[in-house]
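S1.2 Input.
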Amino acid sequence: MERLDKILALHNVGSRKEAGALVRAGAVTVNGRAAARPEQKVDPEQDEIAVHGRPLTLRRHVYLMMNKPAGVLSAARDKNAPTVVDLLPPQLRRRGLFPAGRLDKDTEGLLLLTDDGGLAHRMLSPKSHVYKLYEARLDRPAQPGDQAAFAAGLQAGELSCLPARLSWGEDPCLVQVEVREGKFHQVKRMFHAVGKEVVALRRLRIGGLSLDPALSPGQARFLTGEEVEKIFLPQAVENPTA
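S1.3 Output.
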């Protein structure tokens, strides 16, 4: 059971204060009856909540898409540096959200935050074949030999990597790489193994879910049910244009 105003704020109705004002104005019903007070306890799994007559689709779990900016840690909390959870509004920071997978501090782009540990484990497992698409700016042009090395599954120092997809267009210093693992500094270490350094890195897609171009760095929004399902859609291999 949770407070009604907390549930309303979590579902983007407004802040806790604004949600409380709606309840007191008689705009919120629980199971067809006007809510008594903002602190009223409700069961998100059983109760039907409506605002101005429109039912809310209550979420058992929260799934957020964030456009992660550089300079922020992919962590729930840290004593010494700002984290992606710190960028969220207060009602979501109290939800127990965590990043599903990590991006390096200086890496930007698509990051999922959730309180669903089962989905996070499934998404991150190499057995699920959920590819993550990155755009990388390199200090030196990519070569066809790099493509073959990535496809074969290269050895990056002590790191053994599964086969990955590498492609590029007219600019061989601006490449796209797809991996289905999330090992520490993996993309950077893979390019280092073939004699290149990553100057900038941005994640564009997880499975079939692409970063919303309307999200500015640091912004986040709820995912729809269809978007959550897209995470596990298989992606076709694109022919490189190198």
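S1.4 Remarks. The chain has seven helices and 17 strands.
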